[in-house]
Design goal:
mainly alpha, AhpD-like, 2 domains
């Protein structure tokens, strides 16, 4: 039985028990990030699901988009803050700090993005993301038009919505499994 604060099945899936492609991915994470994110280790109990998770994450967060990587990370943090997902607040708060080169912005995003001095485009994007998270049934054409007025295309609105949806899903999985962030995230980009 997992202990509080431990990821379900985490200790069962170290690199030597993984398929070759997943072991290589672990090595890439270690080389690039200095760690293997615990979310990756948690998903390793089912390598097919892990591959799907990695592919979707990489497409959403690193693929071609009218949204910058910083903007996508800001969405991740605002959604995770609304959902009170400790894992994603820590991990993606560190990413906001790194991409923005602003440790204060990373902290404000975790605590309350509304307190941050954001560009109107970013504020409109995050207002939409949080409304979609908390009250998706209330999204109307006026909400989409506010994004267009802030400079987003319909393709950008799709991307915003997918990132919001992805993090709502992962926040719930993290909460359900008591997934804890790697401690290293707390010291990154400060």
């Amino acid at each position: 039985m997992p202990q509080p604060g431990h990821i379900i099945a985490l200790d069962l899936h170290e690199p030597e028990t993984l398929d070759e492609d997943i072991a290589v991915f672990y090595e890439k994470c270690q080389a690039k990030l200095g760690l293997v994110p615990n979310v990756i280790r948690a998903y390793a109990w089912n390598q097919k699901k892990l591959r799907n998770f990695i592919a979707f994450y990489n497409e959403l967060m690193l693929g071609d988009s009218g949204l910058s990587r910083l903007e996508r990370e800001m969405i991740a943090v605002a959604v995770s803050s609304a959902n009170r997902c400790y894992y994603c607040q820590a991990a993606h708060g560190a990413a906001v700090r790194a991409y923005s080169e602003d440790p204060v912005l990373g902290e404000l995003m975790v605590m309350n993005y509304r307190a941050a001095a954001l560009e109107p485009r970013q504020r409109a994007m995050l207002d939409f993301a949080v409304k979609l998270t908390e009250q998706s049934h209330l999204i109307t054409e006026a909400d989409r038009q506010a994004l267009r007025d802030a400079g987003f295309s319909d393709a950008d609105i799709w991307d915003i919505s997918e990132v919001v949806g992805f993090f709502n899903m992962t926040n719930r999985v993290a909460s359900a499994t008591d997934m804890m962030p790697n401690p290293d995230y707390h010291a990154q980009a400060r």
